[in-house]
Amino acid sequence: MKKLIILCCAAGLLFSSCNKQLDLEPRQTISDEVVFTNDANIKKALTGAYDALSSGYLLGGEFLLYSELQAADGEISWVGTYNQPREIFNKTILTNNSYVRDTWTEAYSTINICNNIIAAIDKVNEDDRDRVMGEAFFIRGITYFNLITFYAKPYSHGNTTEAESGVPLVLTPTTGINEESYVSRNTVEEVYAKIIEDLSTAESLLPDENDVFATNIAAAGFLSRVYLQMEKYPEALTAVNTAFDDADGSKSLNSNYADAFNNESMTKEDIFIIAVNSQDGANDMHLFWSTGADGARDGDVEINQKHLNLYEAGDERLDLFYTGAGAVRSGKWKQRYKNLSIMRLAELYLTRAECNFRLASSEGATVLSDVSTVRSRVGLTTIAGDIDLGFILKERKLELAHEGQAIQDAKRLKKTVDAFPFNDNKLVFPIPLREMNANPNLKQNPGYGG
Q1: Quick check: 87 and 94 in contact, CB under 8 A?
Q2: 120-130 per-position pLDDT tens digit
Q3: Which of 366, 367, 399, 425 is the most exposed place for a label (fewest CB within 10 A)?
C-alpha cells in the first residue's frame, strides 16, 4: 500500500493547523481539485484512507495499546521508557501528551479523507461506486468509534445527550480554515448514531469478498461491537447474525489458536486486518509487546501472573505466552512484518453467545454451541451447566486478551480497573492541549481544566 498523504483533506483541517505555530501542512499536500476529480485519483485516495487508518497512532497499534494499558488492572505492566504510554497506564495523562495529540490528529485526517471521497463519489466508475463509498463509510465509522471510546465518557455512563460530551462530528470535507472550522463537540448519543449509520450504510454497500479491505462481514461485525458497547443486546445480536449470514460459511476458526496471529495474508478466521509488510504498514503492537531479540524495543509490556492464573489447565492459549527479556510476553505480536488482526471470527461467536444468553434466546446458534466452538479449539470442553454470564465474559476476556478491547469491555460491564470506577474522569483522554488552544469552541473533558 503506497502512502498517499492527501492532507488536502487534512492540511487545512483545524485539528492539525490553525495558526502559524500549528501549521503542519506537508510538502506532499495535493490540491483537492486534483485528487478528487476522477475515478483513478479517488481510488488512490481510498488507498490513502486505509494507509492513514493503519498508522501506528490508530489501528496500526496505539488504539489497541491504549485499551490494554487503561484496563491493565494488575494483569499487565508498562515498563518501557516512553513516558506517553506510561501516563496512560498510570491514569495520569497530561493534556500535552503527544500520543493523545497525534492520535486525535491522525484520526481526523483519516475521517477527512473519507469525507472527500464520499463528497466526490459520483466521479467513481459506476461499477465500483458502491464498494468505494462503502469502504469510506466503514473507515469513517470505525475511526469515530475509536475516538468516542477514548475521548469521551462511556455510553454506559448515561447522560449520553449531555451537550458537548462526545467528539466533534465533521462530516464534510475540510479544505481551509474559516468560521465553520471551529467545530464544537457533539453529544455521545449523536456520535454513536452517526457511527451506526455509517456502518449500516457500509454493510449495505460492501461485497462479502474484498481482498484485505473492508467487507459487509466486517461492517456488520463492527456494528455488533458498537451495539454491544451501547448495551443494546437485541441490536448487537441482529448485527452479529448479519455478519454470519454475509459470510455464508466462508469464515471458520483456524485449526490452532496460534495460527490466528503473525500471518502474512488473511486467514479464514480474519474479519478485518491491518496488512503489514516490510514496505508498508505499522505494527506498533510488535514494537511495544515483543522484545529486542525479535526486532522490537526492550519488552515494554509485561504479562503478569494475575492474568496467567485466569486460564484453566490445558488451555492451549497459554502456549502463546513465552519468556523473553526476563518477563512473560504475549506471542500474538511477536513478528514484526505480519498482519494485525483487528477483528476475528472468534469474537463474533462470543458476542452472539453473550447476547443470546442475556436475551434467553438461541438466534443463529445456541449459547453452548458458540462457546464450545471457541473453547474446543484450545483443547477445552464445555458443560452446559457451567455456562453463566460470568463464564461467557471470562471466555471473551481470555480469547481476545491483549487484542485491544480490554477497556471497552471494562467500561460497558461497569468494572473497576486499577481502583478506578468505569466512568472515572481519569479513564478518559483529555482533548489535546493543541486543539484546545487552536479552537475556542472545544470543551475540555472533566478533570483536565479548560
Answers
A1: yes
A2: 999 999 999 99
A3: 425
